[in-house]
Amino acid sequence: MDRIKVAQRVGQAVRLVAKTALLAAMLASALMASSARAALEYNLQPPVTPIGEQIFDLHVYIMWICVVIFVGVFAVMFYSIFAHRKSQGHQAAQFHENTTVEVVWTVIPFLILMFMALPATRTILAMKDTTVPDMTIKVTGYQWKWSYDYIDQGFGFVSNLKTPHTQIYNQEPKGEHYLLEVDQPMVVPVGKRIRVLITAGDVIHSWWVPAFGVKQDAIPGFVRDAWFRADKPGIYRGQCAELCGKEHGFMPIVVEVLPADQYAAWADAQKKKATAAADDPARIWDVKELTARGEAVYTANCAACHQANGKGVPPAFPPLDGSKIATGPVAAHLDVVLNGVVRNGQATAMVAWKNTLSPTEIAAVVTYERNAWGNHVGDVVQPSQVAAAGK
Amino acid sequence: MSSIPHDHAGGHAHDEHAHHPGGIMRWITTTNHKDIGTLYLWFSFIMFLAGGCLALTIRTELFEPGLQIVDPEFFNSLTTLHGLIMIFGAIMPAAVGFANWQVPLMIGAPDMAFARMNNWSFWLLPFAVTLLFTSFFVPGGAAAGGWTLYAPLSVQAGMGMDLTIFAIHIMGASSIMGSINIITTILNLRAPGMTMMKMPLFVWTWLITAYLLIAVMPVLAGAVTMLLTDRHFGTSFFNAAGGGDPVMFQHIFWFFGHPEVYIMILPSFGIVSTIIPAFSRKPLFGYASMVYATSSIAILSFLVWAHHMFTVGMPAAGQLFFMYMTMLIAVPTGVKVFNWIATMWKGSMTFETPMLFAIGFVFLFTLGGFTGLVLAITPVDIQLQDTYYVVAHFHYVLVAGSLFAFFGGIYYWLPKWCGRMYNEAMGVWHFWLSMIFFNITFFPMHFLGLAGMPRRVPDYATQFTDWNMVASIGAFGFGLSQLLLLYNVVTCIRSGPPAPAKPWEGADTLEWTLPSPAPYHTFETPPHVH
Least crowded by CB within 10 Å, which of A312, A340, B10, B377? Predict the structure, then answer.
């Protein structure tokens, strides 16, 4: 091939590279302009547990091996596309078989894979070893919230999405932790080996905190476990990672890692609160107290389906405003809330709330539903009635 | 090996003026493999556009954080039906369409072995997708548990799920009949002299695909039947309270689901292995090793299903076994990529549209293969499972993989099918626009997944906004680019310049010995293969 041809080819290549660079620069500047809100995210979140760190390093290691092979293999292909083209007058060779070559490119990838499998195996064995925990917390997924039970310490709570609907429906600006904020985060001490027992109450969910390198499906009827040791105090955010129905995108996980003394103070306060919150079921409440409490219970547990305005999302989630059940006899209303709705022998999205709500909470929410929106039944349901109906 | 003698019905010879009903009845009653291939291909293209519309609705909702145009339940229906329609309505029927047209032509057979069953296996499909689309309008809406239909979420769903289950049964029956037909045709109707190891690679990949289909479609039918009885007849296969196990559904589903992945990609391997030698003007490198690699992939595909389930909490031994097996698939897949590149090496290449799509396939499919390898590493998968990284990965292997190969195949065989040439410049535009917009759509999804965005969510935290905007813009570009293909094919059929019998210099399979367009009946006397 003569010099002019080479020069032409180089010229072509330079022009191609220049055009591509220009395109990339245009795309990049467009991105920069739009990224005033938040920095562009490219990689795994910074890990704060030993397992999280191993996963992070493993990913970087595997990815670079892949990049090197990719560049090598396609350098060959693009060289061939460039050099062995008919327009360059290249004549086709007719070879079509070579056993040695086939063996080589079977064996070499196999060896590379072994070097990938070794560190991965070590990490798997470490992550599956959930023995000798310092502390155990039971995590239960529900449609669509998480509950945390500190089973060694005798308290627990439910953790709901805190982002208001007005932000979700674009009626007000979105906050800093939009969709990744809860009313009550899980709290753990720093540097302790925490074992989480994970299960679910209805369908499969998945408990995932990226910074911890933990993702474990929550399977109804079975308990699975995982562990982590967070080495840095802070607030870490994750989300449910298994499609679990309508509000799947709206059940975040927030874990607050505290220094030992602050954790102890928090746990102490929780225990006291648990004792105080054990409502006396014999107490007689007045209407105002009960509906105020009921509204809070409704917002946390019922509004996702039946909506804050009681209109529901028919037909899957019926309205309560003006419904026969919410305005009919108290006994039937209580039955639905306590025992849920079973259709054709299968549980529906309306679960039995007696498992998760106290008699006082159920009394409050039923009273609220009977007297909110367009409902004006006017009666008051006391916790003692709920306790009697629940037997 | 001899072929079945052709029965000249009524004693008169067939010629160019074939005796068959005209108009719509021609298509409803046809038993001709070319007509049925055409039906399959048009059907799958319509489904491709329909599934694409669902995808564009998803991308519109995800353009910005917050809920704008659809509510969350409907969003879940969109992702579910997008998956089901693209897999069972677009990719799989398109592959069967290619098989119908090309398998008889490439092995020198007069038609498919079971011509009437062939008609039935196609005509089941419109009923199945009608059920799927109808399900949007029943109380409770269409299935919304994801295309994987995981129990117990799918047990909770409304009657849209029952319609989906029934649709899957029908499509499964169609696939099984199609596979029986393809296997019988390949094993019994090859022209004299065409031994198994002389078959074009497309025929080989389809033979293996058909066996995979027969092996796993009944498994899927079993899984959805158990779902149906759990929903309506009081069984507890997937209900722990009745002694069942929700995770068992996933095991059964993915025992179907993983071979299904190869069902969708192997025919594409075959198409690419046909196109690359033709435009390199050089025989396929390592034909035998390609056959062995395809077979190994098919066998390994039965041993890797639980890599879709690394987060369900299986024992360490289970995670290790499925990780090793999954990594092993990289070996035969690598062999195929190396063989394609070795075929190009020292060839005399030209870059017509089919070749562009084949090269695009090799490049992007390999990228998708590498992200597959990253996902095979169990600890890394624990972070990435059910995130947008997985969405990026499987769109690289299914869109840039299967679909690009089908596009290449359409441009490659269109001159033979309709006797006219497509517009080359427009084809090249279609390739480059698809290539660029595909990457704008799906490459940023790797970043989204790594940064922690779950899949199947209608709304997301604000740090994911930028890449979602980029992906949505790319998606509309990609979707609109496909109208170029439609326009090109329609104008080609109606008014393209006449195509010669063999428009591609390096093509050497049997169909190019026929005139263009291929006559309605071909190889009534089998050709001799040397």
Answer: B10
CATH node for A135-278: 2.60.40.420
Tokens for B412? 């490659």
The C-alpha angle B176, B268, B424, rounded to 5 degrees, equals 130
The set of residues, in sequence order, having a beta carbon less than 8 Å from that of A219 and lying 6+ positions away, is A199, A200, A204, B240, B246, B247, B312, B313
ipTM given for this complex: 0.91
Contacts A63 to B, Cβ<8 Å: 374
Tens of pLDDT, residues B299-330: 999 999 999 999 999 999 999 999 999 999 99
The residues with which A313 forms a beta bridge, in sequence order, are A317
CB contact under 8 A, A249 and B337: no
B182 contacts B107 by C-beta, under 8 angstroms: no
* Residue B522 tokens, joined: 């071909």
Three-state secondary structure call for residue A132: coil
Q: CA–CA distance from B190 to each of B106, B109, B214, B303, B516 (Å)?
A: 9, 6, 21, 32, 22
Residue A136 belongs to what H/E stretch? strand A135-142
- Matching CATH number, A287-389, of 3.40.30.10, 1.25.40.20, 1.10.10.10, 1.10.760.10: 1.10.760.10
Does A2 have pLDDT greater than 60? no
Residues of chain A with Cβ-Cβ distance to B452 below 8 Å are 41, 44-45, 210, 238-239
The model's pTM is: 0.85
Supply the DSSP string of A258-300, one letter for each residue: E-HHHHHHHHHHHHHHHHHHS--TTPPPPHHHHHHHHHHHHHH
Alpha-carbon distances of B60 from A201, B78, B122, B253, B456, rounded to whole Å: 33, 12, 33, 30, 14
